[in-house]
Amino acid sequence: MKKIYGIGVGPGDKELITLKGYRLIREADVIFAPKSKGISTALKIAEEFISDKKIVELEFPMGEDNSSRYKEAAEIIRKTSGETGAFLTLGDPMVYSTFIYLLSELDKIGVNAEAIPGITSFGAASNITKTPLTLKGDNFYLCDGEINLDILKNSQSVAVLKTYKDKKKILSILEENGFEYVYVKRCSTENEVILRDRTAILEDKDYLSLIIGRRRNNG
Ligand SMILES: C[S@@+](CC[C@H](N)C(=O)[O-])C[C@H]1O[C@@H](n2cnc3c(N)ncnc32)[C@H](O)[C@@H]1O
After folding, report:
1. Domain spanning 3-116: which CATH class is it, in words?
2. 140 to 58, 92, 119, 123: CA distances (angstroms)
3. Residues enclosing ligand 1, CB less than 6 A?
4. What atom in ligand 1 is closest to the CA of residue 123?
5. If you take atom 5 of ligand 1, which residue's CA is the nearest one?
6. Is 74 helix (H, G, I), strand (E, B) or coil?
7. What are the residue boundaries of the structural domains of the chain, listed by start?
8. For the residues 87-109, what does the mean pLDDT come to?
9. Looking at the domain that runs over 121-215, which CATH code has it been given?
């Protein structure tokens, strides 16, 4: 590829793809889609716009060391012929994303790459649940599964992604530190679920879920 764009396709609703992301997807000669254990959420979000395109699926199994796969994927992208490629990524490319690791491998082998921002999962979830992330002077804390207490104590709101790691611990920490919380699963999709009840949250299991916490009496 002469140029590869890492494109954030947003959290699930295809209308939450940016106009720039959409245009670059439509203009791309080849679509690259990350998969984990055969599933590509990013591909599903954009599927309506890429049915006429060549699609190259790249497997990065979740929970495994994918270092060599990032190198191989960068080589595949370099060797694929075409003017521009679109590497689809869930939410925003710079937030807990495969594209971050791939980008560093692409840089090493001299492939021209650019990241196109997308709407994050927690940004969408905070809007959908009408939970403010920041008011004037607030600190917002983003983490993936494990909460650092020192940071939490200095934050008015928190978004915890990858909740599957230990939801019970996450909820207990939030309760003990004076936070209200909301659990959002598959936000902005037709399977979206919003839960506030502790038991219901603990019963649910879904990789595509997050928890937003907001310190009580903080807007
Ligand atoms: C590898 S991270 C990707 C984050 C993504 N780049 C972003 O900007 O939001 C995957 C985690 O994002 C969260 N996530 C992504 N899409 C989501 C959605 N539609 N609803 C709820 N959580 C979502 C979940 O916590 C999931 O475990």
Report:
1. alpha beta
2. 33, 17, 17, 12
3. 11-12, 90-92, 95-97, 120-121, 161-163, 184-188, 207-210
4. 9
5. 91
6. helix
7. 3-116, 121-215
8. 98
9. 3.30.950.10
